[in-house]
Amino acid sequence: MFDILMYLFENYIHSESAIFVEENELTEELKRAGFHSSEIYKALDWLEQLADLQNSDEFPYLNRSPSHSTRIFTDSECDKLDITCRSFLMFLEQVSLINPITREMVIDRIFDLDKEVISLDDLKWVVLMVLFNVPGQEGAYAQMEDLIFDERRGQVH
Q1: 92 and which of 69, 78, 98, 110 could share a cystine (Cβ 3.0–4.6 Å)?
Q2: Is 35 helix (H, G, I), strand (E, B) or coil?
Q3: CA–CA dist 156, 26 (Å, integer)
Q4: What is the mean pLDDT of each run of 10 residues along the chain (157 residues)?
Q5: Bridge partners, residue 81, by sequence
Q6: Which of 51, 26, 35 is nearest to 2 (CA)?
Q7: Three-class DSSP category at 118
Q8: Predicted TM-score of the model (pTM)
């Protein structure tokens, strides 16, 4: 499923044509690219849930905008996100690339991936996808993109 998300992100992020194609057309394109139907539907559902997070009453903490917060990770979160990933999230918050709301959106989306453990690279891509889909986060998205793609700076974390 993550490979499909990456495929869509890489193929549509800088495209002039938005991803507003018919779901059937998109599904057929993904099948032609070699992805399996069950994984395609999981990926499309993942993206739909990301969009729904912004308007959800299920997650009331996303409707408030605290200026800062302390995040305590559960054991299951620590199992999926190692110390490198958790400290990277904290770093992103400290430099104001994400806020408590977008942080929780990232964590929510990570836990809906079909992966036992999330690598730092996976986390960075999920952060990019979340920032891309949240209105008003264009500056943070551009800075995060620089952190990922600007190899002259070396490894950030």
Answers
A1: 98
A2: coil
A3: 35
A4: 84 59 81 91 87 65 59 92 95 91 92 90 92 85 82 50
A5: 118
A6: 35
A7: strand
A8: 0.74
